[in-house]
Design goal:
The chain is α/β, with parallel strands linked by helices. The protein contains nine helices and 13 strands. The strands form two sheets. An eight-stranded mixed sheet has the order 7-8-9-6-10-11-12-13, with helices on one face. Strands 2-1-3-4-5 form a five-stranded parallel sheet, with helices on both faces. The longest helix has 17 residues.
Protein backbone atom coordinates (compact mmCIF):
# COMPACT_ATOMS: atom_id res chain seq x y z
CA UNK A 1 0.00 0.00 0.00
CA UNK A 2 1.34 3.41 -0.99
CA UNK A 3 0.41 6.24 1.33
CA UNK A 4 -0.91 9.30 -0.50
CA UNK A 5 0.66 12.55 0.68
CA UNK A 6 -0.45 16.10 -0.08
CA UNK A 7 1.99 18.98 0.33
CA UNK A 8 0.83 22.35 1.63
CA UNK A 9 3.21 25.17 0.73
CA UNK A 10 5.45 24.89 -2.33
CA UNK A 11 8.50 26.93 -1.41
CA UNK A 12 11.98 25.47 -1.01
CA UNK A 13 10.89 22.99 1.69
CA UNK A 14 7.82 21.90 -0.25
CA UNK A 15 9.94 21.24 -3.33
CA UNK A 16 12.33 19.11 -1.27
CA UNK A 17 9.40 17.03 -0.05
CA UNK A 18 8.08 16.66 -3.59
CA UNK A 19 11.47 15.53 -4.91
CA UNK A 20 11.61 12.89 -2.17
CA UNK A 21 8.08 11.58 -2.72
CA UNK A 22 8.53 11.35 -6.48
CA UNK A 23 11.48 9.00 -5.83
CA UNK A 24 9.59 6.57 -3.56
CA UNK A 25 7.36 3.51 -3.67
CA UNK A 26 6.08 3.45 -0.07
CA UNK A 27 4.59 6.95 -0.30
CA UNK A 28 3.36 8.96 -3.24
CA UNK A 29 2.78 12.64 -3.96
CA UNK A 30 -0.97 13.01 -4.50
CA UNK A 31 -1.16 16.78 -4.90
CA UNK A 32 -0.09 20.25 -3.76
CA UNK A 33 -1.95 23.13 -2.20
CA UNK A 34 -0.20 26.46 -2.76
CA UNK A 35 -2.12 29.72 -2.27
CA UNK A 36 0.20 31.86 -4.38
CA UNK A 37 -1.05 31.61 -8.00
CA UNK A 38 2.36 32.68 -9.33
CA UNK A 39 4.06 29.59 -7.92
CA UNK A 40 4.29 26.81 -10.51
CA UNK A 41 3.54 23.33 -9.16
CA UNK A 42 4.72 21.65 -12.36
CA UNK A 43 2.59 18.71 -13.52
CA UNK A 44 1.44 17.69 -10.03
CA UNK A 45 -2.26 17.99 -9.26
CA UNK A 46 -3.04 21.32 -7.60
CA UNK A 47 -5.81 21.62 -5.04
CA UNK A 48 -7.99 24.68 -5.49
CA UNK A 49 -8.63 25.13 -1.77
CA UNK A 50 -7.70 23.88 1.67
CA UNK A 51 -11.25 22.58 2.05
CA UNK A 52 -10.94 20.51 -1.13
CA UNK A 53 -7.78 18.90 0.21
CA UNK A 54 -9.29 18.08 3.61
CA UNK A 55 -12.39 16.53 2.07
CA UNK A 56 -10.49 14.28 -0.36
CA UNK A 57 -10.77 10.70 0.97
CA UNK A 58 -7.76 9.50 -1.05
CA UNK A 59 -5.31 11.74 0.83
CA UNK A 60 -3.87 9.90 3.83
CA UNK A 61 -1.49 12.55 5.13
CA UNK A 62 -0.51 16.19 4.76
CA UNK A 63 3.02 17.59 4.83
CA UNK A 64 2.76 21.13 6.19
CA UNK A 65 5.64 23.05 4.58
CA UNK A 66 4.56 26.37 6.03
CA UNK A 67 6.20 28.91 8.37
CA UNK A 68 5.91 27.81 12.02
CA UNK A 69 3.89 30.83 13.13
CA UNK A 70 0.23 29.82 12.82
CA UNK A 71 0.99 26.44 11.24
CA UNK A 72 -0.47 24.52 14.19
CA UNK A 73 -3.97 25.67 13.25
CA UNK A 74 -3.65 23.86 9.92
CA UNK A 75 -2.33 20.78 11.72
CA UNK A 76 -5.32 20.70 14.07
CA UNK A 77 -7.73 20.99 11.13
CA UNK A 78 -5.93 18.24 9.22
CA UNK A 79 -5.98 15.84 12.18
CA UNK A 80 -9.65 16.61 12.79
CA UNK A 81 -10.33 15.73 9.14
CA UNK A 82 -8.71 12.32 9.61
CA UNK A 83 -5.36 13.11 8.00
CA UNK A 84 -1.96 12.28 9.45
CA UNK A 85 0.45 15.21 9.59
CA UNK A 86 4.14 15.76 8.90
CA UNK A 87 5.45 19.09 10.20
CA UNK A 88 8.39 20.97 8.76
CA UNK A 89 10.95 22.28 11.25
CA UNK A 90 10.80 23.92 13.65
CA UNK A 91 7.82 21.73 14.59
CA UNK A 92 6.17 23.95 17.23
CA UNK A 93 6.58 27.39 18.73
CA UNK A 94 5.90 26.32 22.33
CA UNK A 95 5.79 23.17 24.45
CA UNK A 96 2.12 23.89 25.06
CA UNK A 97 1.48 23.80 21.31
CA UNK A 98 3.42 20.53 21.05
CA UNK A 99 1.32 18.95 23.82
CA UNK A 100 -1.89 20.12 22.15
CA UNK A 101 -0.84 18.58 18.84
CA UNK A 102 0.13 15.29 20.49
CA UNK A 103 -3.29 15.14 22.16
CA UNK A 104 -5.09 16.01 18.93
CA UNK A 105 -3.21 13.26 17.05
CA UNK A 106 -3.99 10.75 19.78
CA UNK A 107 -7.68 11.72 19.89
CA UNK A 108 -7.92 11.42 16.09
CA UNK A 109 -5.89 8.17 16.03
CA UNK A 110 -3.56 9.72 13.45
CA UNK A 111 0.21 9.80 13.00
CA UNK A 112 2.14 13.03 13.51
CA UNK A 113 5.82 13.48 12.71
CA UNK A 114 8.56 16.01 12.04
CA UNK A 115 10.88 16.50 9.07
CA UNK A 116 14.00 15.92 11.18
CA UNK A 117 15.80 13.77 8.61
CA UNK A 118 19.16 14.03 10.38
CA UNK A 119 17.86 11.75 13.15
CA UNK A 120 18.51 8.92 10.69
CA UNK A 121 22.24 9.68 10.89
CA UNK A 122 22.32 8.47 14.49
CA UNK A 123 23.71 4.92 14.74
CA UNK A 124 21.50 2.47 16.64
CA UNK A 125 24.36 1.75 19.05
CA UNK A 126 24.32 5.37 20.24
CA UNK A 127 20.80 4.91 21.66
CA UNK A 128 22.06 2.13 23.94
CA UNK A 129 24.65 4.37 25.61
CA UNK A 130 24.04 5.84 29.04
CA UNK A 131 24.84 9.48 28.30
CA UNK A 132 24.86 10.68 31.90
CA UNK A 133 26.24 13.50 34.06
CA UNK A 134 29.79 12.60 33.03
CA UNK A 135 29.01 13.47 29.40
CA UNK A 136 30.26 16.71 27.88
CA UNK A 137 29.17 17.81 24.42
CA UNK A 138 30.25 20.48 21.96
CA UNK A 139 28.20 21.67 18.99
CA UNK A 140 29.28 24.03 16.24
CA UNK A 141 27.06 24.90 13.30
CA UNK A 142 28.24 27.32 10.62
CA UNK A 143 25.85 27.72 7.69
CA UNK A 144 26.92 30.74 5.61
CA UNK A 145 24.09 32.74 4.08
CA UNK A 146 23.62 35.96 2.13
CA UNK A 147 21.60 37.45 4.95
CA UNK A 148 19.77 40.04 2.86
CA UNK A 149 18.52 37.34 0.50
CA UNK A 150 17.90 34.64 3.12
CA UNK A 151 16.05 36.78 5.65
CA UNK A 152 13.32 38.07 3.40
CA UNK A 153 9.58 37.59 3.11
CA UNK A 154 8.28 35.59 6.12
CA UNK A 155 11.79 34.84 7.40
CA UNK A 156 12.19 38.44 8.54
CA UNK A 157 8.98 38.34 10.58
CA UNK A 158 9.68 36.73 13.99
CA UNK A 159 5.98 36.06 14.53
CA UNK A 160 5.99 33.80 11.47
CA UNK A 161 9.57 32.51 11.46
CA UNK A 162 9.97 31.94 15.22
CA UNK A 163 13.59 33.13 14.98
CA UNK A 164 16.56 33.18 12.68
CA UNK A 165 19.51 30.94 11.94
CA UNK A 166 19.24 28.81 15.10
CA UNK A 167 15.57 27.94 14.62
CA UNK A 168 15.97 27.06 10.94
CA UNK A 169 19.49 25.74 10.35
CA UNK A 170 20.96 25.05 13.79
CA UNK A 171 17.88 23.12 14.83
CA UNK A 172 18.82 19.77 13.25
CA UNK A 173 22.00 19.18 15.25
CA UNK A 174 20.45 20.69 18.39
CA UNK A 175 17.72 18.07 18.01
CA UNK A 176 20.34 15.32 17.65
CA UNK A 177 21.86 16.44 20.95
CA UNK A 178 18.44 16.26 22.61
CA UNK A 179 17.85 12.74 21.24
CA UNK A 180 21.03 11.56 22.96
CA UNK A 181 21.24 13.73 26.07
CA UNK A 182 17.60 14.24 27.05
CA UNK A 183 15.49 17.33 27.52
CA UNK A 184 17.15 20.67 28.35
CA UNK A 185 16.61 21.79 31.93
CA UNK A 186 18.65 25.02 31.77
CA UNK A 187 19.95 27.31 29.05
CA UNK A 188 22.40 30.19 29.33
CA UNK A 189 22.85 32.51 26.38
CA UNK A 190 26.42 33.76 26.23
CA UNK A 191 26.17 35.80 23.04
CA UNK A 192 23.82 36.81 20.25
CA UNK A 193 23.90 38.88 17.06
CA UNK A 194 20.74 39.81 15.18
CA UNK A 195 19.72 40.70 11.65
CA UNK A 196 16.69 42.44 13.13
CA UNK A 197 14.82 42.13 16.44
CA UNK A 198 14.05 38.47 17.07
CA UNK A 199 16.01 37.20 14.02
CA UNK A 200 19.40 35.85 15.12
CA UNK A 201 22.50 35.60 12.97
CA UNK A 202 24.55 34.00 15.73
CA UNK A 203 23.68 32.39 19.05
CA UNK A 204 26.20 31.12 21.59
CA UNK A 205 25.26 29.33 24.78
CA UNK A 206 25.43 26.42 27.18
CA UNK A 207 22.80 23.82 27.97
CA UNK A 208 22.32 21.40 30.85
CA UNK A 209 20.20 18.33 30.13
CA UNK A 210 17.94 16.11 32.22
CA UNK A 211 20.61 13.37 32.18
CA UNK A 212 23.10 15.74 33.83
CA UNK A 213 25.07 16.11 30.60
CA UNK A 214 26.22 19.58 29.56
CA UNK A 215 26.86 21.11 26.13
CA UNK A 216 28.30 24.32 24.76
CA UNK A 217 27.20 25.45 21.32
CA UNK A 218 27.49 28.11 18.67
CA UNK A 219 25.25 28.56 15.62
CA UNK A 220 26.16 31.18 13.03
CA UNK A 221 25.57 32.17 9.42
CA UNK A 222 28.24 34.88 9.36
CA UNK A 223 31.37 32.74 8.85
CA UNK A 224 32.45 31.81 5.31
CA UNK A 225 33.14 28.15 6.05
CA UNK A 226 30.36 25.58 6.33
CA UNK A 227 30.63 23.18 9.25
CA UNK A 228 28.23 21.06 11.31
CA UNK A 229 29.86 19.10 14.11
CA UNK A 230 28.38 17.52 17.23
CA UNK A 231 30.75 15.73 19.61
CA UNK A 232 29.64 13.81 22.70
CA UNK A 233 32.35 12.73 25.17
CA UNK A 234 31.56 10.16 27.86
CA UNK A 235 34.02 8.40 30.23
CA UNK A 236 34.89 5.66 27.74
CA UNK A 237 32.89 6.58 24.64
CA UNK A 238 32.82 9.28 21.99
CA UNK A 239 30.20 10.02 19.33
CA UNK A 240 30.98 12.50 16.57
CA UNK A 241 28.66 13.60 13.78
CA UNK A 242 30.51 15.92 11.42
CA UNK A 243 29.08 17.14 8.14
CA UNK A 244 26.99 13.99 7.90
CA UNK A 245 29.76 11.55 8.86
CA UNK A 246 29.15 9.57 12.05
CA UNK A 247 31.81 7.86 14.18
CA UNK A 248 31.38 6.01 17.47
CA UNK A 249 34.44 5.13 19.54
CA UNK A 250 33.93 2.82 22.53
CA UNK A 251 36.78 1.61 24.74
CA UNK A 252 39.28 2.30 21.99
CA UNK A 253 37.28 0.60 19.22
CA UNK A 254 36.31 3.00 16.46
CA UNK A 255 33.33 2.38 14.20
CA UNK A 256 32.60 4.72 11.30
CA UNK A 257 29.31 4.87 9.45
CA UNK A 258 28.75 5.62 5.76
CA UNK A 259 27.63 9.10 4.73
CA UNK A 260 24.14 9.27 3.29
CA UNK A 261 22.78 12.17 1.31
CA UNK A 262 20.08 14.39 2.75
CA UNK A 263 17.76 13.15 0.00
CA UNK A 264 18.26 9.53 1.09
CA UNK A 265 17.60 10.44 4.72
CA UNK A 266 14.36 12.17 3.74
CA UNK A 267 13.37 8.95 1.98
CA UNK A 268 14.10 6.98 5.17
CA UNK A 269 11.98 9.44 7.12
CA UNK A 270 9.06 9.13 4.72
CA UNK A 271 9.33 5.32 4.88
CA UNK A 272 9.13 5.54 8.68
CA UNK A 273 6.20 7.98 8.47
CA UNK A 274 4.28 5.96 5.85
CA UNK A 275 4.77 2.68 7.72
CA UNK A 276 3.46 4.30 10.91
CA UNK A 277 0.34 5.55 9.11
CA UNK A 278 -0.39 2.05 7.80
CA UNK A 279 0.11 0.54 11.27
CA UNK A 280 -1.82 3.32 13.05
CA UNK A 281 1.10 4.23 15.33
CA UNK A 282 3.66 6.98 15.87
CA UNK A 283 6.92 6.99 13.89
CA UNK A 284 10.01 5.22 15.20
CA UNK A 285 12.36 8.22 14.78
CA UNK A 286 10.57 11.23 13.30
CA UNK A 287 8.01 11.31 16.14
CA UNK A 288 6.78 14.65 17.45
CA UNK A 289 7.23 13.63 21.10
CA UNK A 290 10.99 13.63 20.50
CA UNK A 291 10.79 17.28 19.45
CA UNK A 292 9.99 18.42 22.98
CA UNK A 293 13.61 19.08 23.91
CA UNK A 294 14.49 21.26 20.96
CA UNK A 295 11.12 23.04 21.16
CA UNK A 296 11.78 23.93 24.79
CA UNK A 297 15.23 25.20 23.89
CA UNK A 298 14.05 27.29 20.94
CA UNK A 299 11.24 28.73 23.03
CA UNK A 300 13.84 30.00 25.52
CA UNK A 301 16.05 31.37 22.74
CA UNK A 302 13.04 33.13 21.20
CA UNK A 303 12.16 34.71 24.54
CA UNK A 304 15.75 35.93 24.91
CA UNK A 305 15.38 37.47 21.46
CA UNK A 306 12.25 39.35 22.50
CA UNK A 307 9.77 37.15 20.63
CA UNK A 308 6.53 37.06 22.59
CA UNK A 309 4.76 33.80 21.81
Amino acid sequence: MAVNIAIVGYGSAGRQHAKTLLDMNHASLYGIYEKNPIVDTDSVYRFTSWEELLSNPDVNAIALCLPPGGRANKAFEALDAGKSVLLEKPPCTTEKELDQLLKAANDANQTIGIMFQHRYRLPEEAFNVNWDHQTTAILEVSRPRDINRYFNDWRQDPALSFGGITAHLGIHYLDLACQMLGEPISFHQAGRREFSPGIDLRTVGTIEFSTGAAMSFVVTCEAEARKERLSLYGPDIRLTIEDGRSALEYKGNLRQYPVESTHEMRKQLYMDFASSIINKEQPERCHLQGGRGVTRLLEQIAMNGGIHI
